[in-house]
Write a structure and sequence with these properties.
- This protein is of the alpha+beta class and 299 residues long.
- Helix content is 40%, strand content 14%.
- α3 packs across α6 and α5 packs across α6.
- The relative contact order is 0.13.
- It is elongated.
- The protein has 2 domains: 134 residues, Cytochrome c-like domain (Cytochrome Bc1 Complex, Chain D, domain 2, Orthogonal Bundle); 156 residues, Glutaredoxin, CATH 3.40.30.10.
- It has an 8-stranded mixed sheet with strand order 1-8-7-4-5-6-2-3, with helices on one face.
- β2 and β3 form a beta hairpin.
- It has 12 helices and 8 strands.
């Protein structure tokens, strides 16, 4: 009887072979084989092939974070060659991320889908890409580095800075429409929440405090219900937690799609020019002081 690891490897190899993209590779897992792979041209070539087929669309052919699919991501992948890594630039660290993925981000776990040999190979290739000098576009930029630092200190993820998609919401009390375009000139924190999300409802007092503390920076927090489009239903549930804080509904459902809301609560921070600066999935975790510092950086 085959082990589950072997069976998973066979399935992954069979799928890759059927797609015509990758030939099956032998399974390797011990440290000695991994070390040998760093000097094995065939293993290095395999790593480049796996990376090109499965990773380059987002990370770019040279790992610069400039792949053709980056516009569809909530945040831009970092240049592998940059110094902004949250973990050491080692084979072991890279392999762990490739195998386990990064929760709360578009980076999936590859451990169950690929044989260990392919995970080893692509991890070696990424390590090679990370060992090169940064590109001119991602070289040290004090302003960008300060912004990225402020974003992360506030518990958000830096985003590929781009214009926010058009969106219009309805006030649950007045029924009046509010477009994002009408808020140009001030920073906006889009807050997507749900009537059945206990954590979302519990978070309203913190958001209200944040709104009041950041008035000097002109921050507007738009709390948009993502799981109910009937104003009266949203009022009945949300008003008990939100008090007088304005609540909105996304009547068409287009905003949650355009902003790629996949879990609740979710946040999208826009600067005064209507550009997406940062995102967060899960309960917000920043003090008013951290938010003010972040807002000062996005002016």
């Amino acid at each position: 009887k085959e082990s589950s690891t072997s069976a998973t490897s066979d399935v992954a190899a069979e799928v890759a072979t059927a797609s015509g993209e990758l030939p099956p590779a032998a399974l390797t897992s011990n440290a000695e084989t991994i070390d040998d792979a760093s000097h094995d041209p065939e293993a290095l070539s395999r790593g480049e092939l796996v990376y090109t087929v499965y990773c380059a669309r987002c990370h770019g052919p040279e790992g610069r974070g400039d792949g053709e699919g980056v516009e569809q991501l909530p945040s831009r992948p970092r240049d592998f060659a940059s110094s902004e890594w949250k973990f050491p630039k080692t084979f072991e660290s890279i392999r762990r991320v490739v195998h386990d993925g990064i929760p709360g981000t578009p980076m999936p776990a590859a451990g169950a889908a690929f044989p260990a040999s392919d995970i080893d190979a692509v991890s070696r290739h990424v390590l090679q890409l990370a060992s090169r000098p940064p590109s001119k576009s991602t070289a040290a930029n004090p302003k960008k580095e300060r912004l990225a630092e402020a974003v992360r200190a506030s518990g958000f993820l830096p985003s590929l800075i781009r214009q926010a998609p058009a969106a219009t919401f309805a006030d649950t009390r007045s029924g009046n429409s509010l477009s994002l375009d009408s808020l140009r000139g001030q920073p906006v924190l889009l807050h997507f929440w749900g009537t059945t999300c206990i954590h979302c409802l519990a978070e309203f007092p913190r958001l209200i405090e944040l709104q009041q503390s950041c008035q000097a920076a002109g921050l507007t927090i738009l709390s948009v219900c993502a799981d109910e489009d009937e104003e009266s239903a949203v009022e009945a549930v949300g008003r008990r937690s939100a008090g007088e804080h304005p609540l909105y509904v996304d009547e068409t459902g287009l905003a949650t799609h355009r902003f790629q809301v996949q879990a609740l609560p979710s946040y999208v921070l826009l600067d005064a020019h209507g550009r997406i600066i940062a995102t967060r999935t899960g309960a917000i975790d920043c003090s008013p002081e951290q938010m003010m510092k972040l807002l000062n950086e996005v002016k």
